[in-house]
Each structure stands twice: as structure tokens, then as C-alpha cells.
Amino acid sequence: MINKLVSKIQKTNAPVVVGLDPMLSYVPEHITKAAFAEYGETLEGAAEAIWQFNKGIVDNIYDLVPAVKPQIAMYEQFGIPGIIAFKKTVDYCKEKDLVVIADIKRGDIGSTSTAYAVGHLGKVQVGSKSYAGFDEDFATVNPYLGSDGIKPFIDVCKENKKGIFVLVKTSNPSSGEFQDRLIDGKPLYEIVGEQVAKWGEEHMGDSYSYVGAVVGATYPEMGKVLRKVMPKSFILVPGYGAQGGTAEGLRPYFNEDGLGAIVNSSRGIIAAYKQEKYAQFGPENYADASRQATIDMIEDIASIF
Amino acid sequence: MINKLVSKIQKTNAPVVVGLDPMLSYVPEHITKAAFAEYGETLEGAAEAIWQFNKGIVDNIYDLVPAVKPQIAMYEQFGIPGIIAFKKTVDYCKEKDLVVIADIKRGDIGSTSTAYAVGHLGKVQVGSKSYAGFDEDFATVNPYLGSDGIKPFIDVCKENKKGIFVLVKTSNPSSGEFQDRLIDGKPLYEIVGEQVAKWGEEHMGDSYSYVGAVVGATYPEMGKVLRKVMPKSFILVPGYGAQGGTAEGLRPYFNEDGLGAIVNSSRGIIAAYKQEKYAQFGPENYADASRQATIDMIEDIASIF
User: Among A199, A278, B93, B133, which lies 20 to 30 A Cα-Cα from B299?
Assistant: First the structure.
């Protein structure tokens, strides 16, 4: 799947992933109205609204980008109907041949991590049969529990040619609270990065590892260091746009080959029609605004090479 | 909810939580057979089997213990039918007046953490109405992203009188890989513990905070230190029994008042009938074996006071 991600990035010339993190407040009124008319103001109604919202965006961007990143929290907040909308979104994106990076930030130990891995990236045994519960292509994973938490994911990934992105340096303001603390003169994120590089050796694709890392666009100096620490790991970069990361700050996240990073934008694309810049599209044509914002982002990032 | 947890511990005289982490391999054949007869060897069949398995155990232990801790990964591995079984289990335990600690180890930033918090501990707004998606009493939360990841949970907890347990020192062998690394002479887990104490001040119950911590039974020396660092935080202690933690090692996790900790056992109770000690119950009476194992665990822990 890492090979597919690389080849799709090369084909689209867009190291860009669209974050499908729908808030109900992003969904234009004509969609929520229709969903509530059918299901009422219920969890099912909300789930239908975000699913229809997503579908409109995916239909308008699937030919431009290699991948999408649905953030499961935004679905989980609507309980079981929300999770059903998540699964529908994942399935639909895969139909459109998009690589699906599930932003689930799971992480536990031993058989529990195996269960998460099996549910999201593998197949679970039920009697004599086996089933893929969610079947995404990549998942984000939290490293706080150490190798016991990561290795079960890698084992499942090996069997299924799937991959993970391990949180190394997150994009938020207080990420430094623990991640930047110095250990023998080195920040924790760097030590985690070194482990990502080691874990990555266990499951290599053609040129990059199936074990990638999350490093926020908001910390380019750290991106530069981490790029060198994990030369074979793809870096998933959140924080571009709405969170303040800029294109010029992104160059250090890429290798000399122009690969090695994929930049996420969520709000900046899916809620583009709410920005002054794209306001002319109007809520009815929100998905066209998303398409234009995607094109603009691809151009912006291309400008750094 | 922390006050309810404390008063239920005092009433049952059992600082014990039963981990509802069903593996399909734990479920006796008569239950899987019936479930597969109804739903086939499908995800629905697996979900029905673990739900019926759980129900049998809950019916046999609800009067003995204050709380249960379902591990969502064990349900999530079965996709949407698994999540439905999780929700059924949560609802059933609440009907039985058990405090439900959802072991979800979620953690993200800003509005994403809010979404998790709202989904599991609060209510989500849908038009003019609001709904609780999962509605557990407590959730476990991962601290790697710092205060930005934790505060949204605390805000939702304040509104809903719910609580969290933040991962501080986990019970697994490789937990030390990052958690034990020294920062200015102090291990990372201690620094996280200090933050837990600070976060805890923001949301106090009568005698304990709504912000607790997870500290594994497998590291009693660290438990001793962390007890002092976080005097007002309840400690959720995994790793007793199957993972090697012993009752005598548990004393340091408790305060002088005999409170301040709640000890989890999962496999040791729910799969008790598979142990030689409880084999006489047989698979048909697996839930009686679980009851006996719970009684034995309560006695074992009482012996340290």
C-alpha cells in the first residue's frame, strides 16, 4: 500500500491528502435539511448529513489527490450511526481508488493492539471465516506505550500490505509539553522518531517503509531533523493551512527525491466555501469550492520544488 | 461520577473493576454455537457471542464490584456489529448500576478531542436536539499530545460529571521505552503524573478528582512514587493477575484512607473457567467461575489492608 501511495503521488503530482473531518457546522443547509427531513434531528440524521457532505467532496476531488484521511472522532461523536457513516466513507473512497489513511490514533498493548490492527487493517477470524471490519489502508497510531503497542500493528500490516503512521511530533501548540522534553540532550520526539526508523526496517516497501510518522507542519525545524532521523519513513504532515503551517515551511519534510511526505488539509478544503476566498461558490456548490481549494493547495505545494 | 465510584467501592468493599475484554476464544462453545446458528459465522454472529458472554458474566458479578471496564478494541475488531455489542454491554452494565470505565485510550487535539469526549462522555448537538452516542462514565485517555488533548475531555467531563483516567505508566514490558526516560532527572511518567495532578485540580469531586491515572500493577515502586505525586487522583491499576501483578504489590497504590485505587482484572475473571483452579465449573458454568474468581480477587486485595 505504501508503493501504491507513492505511485499515486507521482501520478497526481500531489503530495496531498484531504482530511475528511466533517463537523455538522460545515455541512451546508440544503444537505442537513434533506437528511433531517428523512431521519429527523437524530444521530441517524446527522450521520446521513455528514455522509452526503463527504460524498459530494469525494466526487469532486478523487481525481486530484492520492489519498484521504477521515478522522474517526468526527464520526464517533455521533455514536453507532456515526461509525456507520465512517465505514461508508471509507468504502466509497476505496471505490474511487483513493488511499484511505484512517486517523484513529489508536494504541494499546499486546492482544489489544492486535485487535485494533485486525479491525482496521486486517481480518478477524470468526469460526472458519474471516472478515475485515473497517479495512482502511493506513492508520495513525500513538507510541506512548512503546514497542508492545506498535509491533502488533506491524505484524498485521505485514500480512495485509497495510501501513501505519506513528505520532512523533503533533501539530498542536502544547505538543511540546511532553514531546519536546530533553532526554540525554535529545527531545522525546526525536527518540520516538529513531524508533519509527527502526520499526520501519521491519516492513519495507520498494523505496519507503510501511511505517510512517506524523510530524506537524507547524514545526518545520523539527521536521528537518526528523526527515534525517527517519529517511525511509513517509511523513504525514497535518497543520497546513488552518493551523498555520505554510508551503515554504514544508520543504524540509521532503527528501531529495521530492517524495517522503504527504501534507494534510482538512478544514481548509472541506469547508473552503466558508472562506472569503471561495465564498463566490456559495453553500450549494460547496464541493466545487473544495475542488478549487484542492487545486490551489497542490499548486502552493508544487511551488516549493 | 467519581463520588459514585468512591461510594460504590466503600459499599462493596471491593476496589476492583472487571475488565470486559472478550476474545472469541474465551467464549464457551454453547454460546458461540447458538450465536452462529442464528447469525452464521459472521461479524454479527461474533458480536452476538461476545454480548451473550458478557451478559452472563455481568449477571453474576454486578452485586460484587463497583465497576466494569470494557476494552473497546475487543469490540472494534468486529467492525460495526462489534461496536453495537460494545454499546449494548455499556447500556446493560449501567442498567445494573455498575460504573462503566470505557477503556478507549483515545486522545487527539482541540475539536477532535472534543468530538471523542462528546461521543463517549457527553452529548452531541444535532440541530435543536442533543444525544449521548455511547454515554460511558469514565474513559481512558492518552497524554502524548499534551494539554490540548486532555483539556477538551475535562471540559466535557465538567458539564456531565464524568471522568477520565490518563495513561501515566502502563503495565506492559516495553512501557519504559518512552515512559521511563529521564528528563531533568525525572522519568517521563512522573512528569505526566504531575500534569495529571494539575489537570485534576480543575475538576474535583468530594474527596478525589474526576481526573485519574492509569498505573500498571507490574511496577509497584513506580506506583508508590506516583501515589504521592497525584494524591487526589484515583489510580486505575491494570496488570493484576494474568500480567503478573500481585496483591502485596498493590498497597502503595492506595492512600492512607484505603481509597485512591481500583484494580482491574480482565482475563483472570472473564476466562476464569479456563484456569485449572476453576476448571470444575466447566464451560457451561463459566459465569459462576467468573463470580468465584471475583470473590477470590476481592479477598486477595482485602488481605493487604
Answer: B93
Interfacial B residues in 230-259 facing A (CB < 8 Å): none
Q: What is the pLDDT along chain B (305 residues), one digit of tens a residue?
A: 899 999 999 999 999 999 999 999 999 999 999 999 999 999 999 999 999 999 999 999 999 999 999 999 999 999 999 999 999 999 999 999 999 999 999 999 999 999 999 999 999 999 999 999 999 999 999 999 999 999 999 999 999 999 999 999 999 999 999 999 999 999 999 999 999 999 999 999 999 999 999 999 999 999 999 999 999 999 999 989 877 778 889 999 999 999 999 999 999 999 999 999 999 999 999 999 999 999 999 999 999 98
Residues 6+ apart with CB under 8 A from A145: A107, A108, A109, A113, B167, B170, B172, B174, B175
- State the DSSP code for A216: -
Told to judge if A105 belongs to the known catalytic residues of this protein, a careful annotator would answer yes
> Closest chain B residue to A129 measured between Cα atoms?
B41
User: Is A191 near chain B, with CB under 8 Å?
Assistant: yes
Contact across the interface for A118 and B188, Cβ inside 8 Å? no
C-alpha A163/C-alpha A2 separation (Å) is 7
Cβ–Cβ below 8 Å for A174 and B74: no
